[in-house]
Amino acid sequence: MDINKIIFLDLDGVLNIINGKLSTAICKNYHFEPSLVDNLNIALEENPDLFIVMSSSWRDDMPDAIAQMKISGFKYEDRFIGNTRFDKNMESFRDEEIKDWISENKFIGDFLIIDDFIEPIINGRFVNYFNESNILEVNPMIGLSSKDIKYISSIFS
Fold first, then answer.
1. CA gap 37, 73 in Å, rounded
2. What CATH code is carried by the domain that includes residue 42?
3. What is the pLDDT of residues 17-48, one digit of tens each?
4. Alpha helices in 1-145 (DSSP H)
5. Is the Cβ–Cβ distance between 20 and 36 less than 8 Å?
6. What is the pTM of this model?
7. In this structure, what is the dihedral angle of CA atoms 126, 124, 47, 150, given to the nearest 10 degrees?
8. Strand order in the sheet with 80-83
9. Contact between 145 and 39 (Cβ < 8 Å)
10. How far apart are alpha carbons 58 and 105 in whole angstroms?
11. Are strands 80-83 and 51-54 parallel, antiparallel or unpaired?
């Protein structure tokens, strides 16, 4: 399988909203908002050659994260192709972990980082490695919106 389109996906703030009824901080069952998961489904339906690398802190237990997404209606488990390295000591940041994944996997295609907190990515040690078109900042009070889905489609069309 030739993979040349990837999203690096954060989950908190993207598929659940800050202080939402299913927010990780409030709901100890770690559910995701079904409407936001459906938006991710739409993005994947519109882009059938788009795959996912989990860059969220949930990657430490990726099978549970995917299971929780499926409970909320996620349809494309087969689109997950891996996750970025998980640094339990928090000595590296998301920008470095994404850069390392790209390098280690010799990925040369198009990618988009989807996250609700992009400050460490755009101002991190690898600021020159990414450009604005590689990053989609999701409003954590809204989550993955229909406007975000349109942006994703525009990047990968």
1. 6
2. 3.40.50
3. 876 554 444 445 557 888 999 999 999 999 99
4. 34-46, 62-71, 94-104, 119-122
5. no
6. 0.89
7. -130
8. 80-83, 51-54, 5-9, 110-115, 135-137
9. yes
10. 21
11. parallel
* Amino acid making up residue 132: E
Number of domains in the chain: 1
Structure tokens at 36: 């936001």
Per-residue pLDDT, averaged over 43-61, amounts to 91
**Residue 89 domain boundaries:** 5-156
Which helix (H) or strand (E) is 110 found in, with range? strand 110-115
Reference 37, options 3, 60, 9; nearest CA is: 9
Q: What is the pLDDT of residues 133-142, one digit of tens each?
A: 899 999 999 9
Contacts of 110 (CB under 8 A, 6+ apart): 4, 5, 6, 155, 156
Average pLDDT, stretch 98-110? 94
* pLDDT recorded at residue 58: 74
Cα-Cα-Cα-Cα dihedral of 134, 98, 124, 111, to 10°?
Answer: 0
Q: Which residue has the tokens 């991710």?
A: 40
DSSP state, residue 22: T
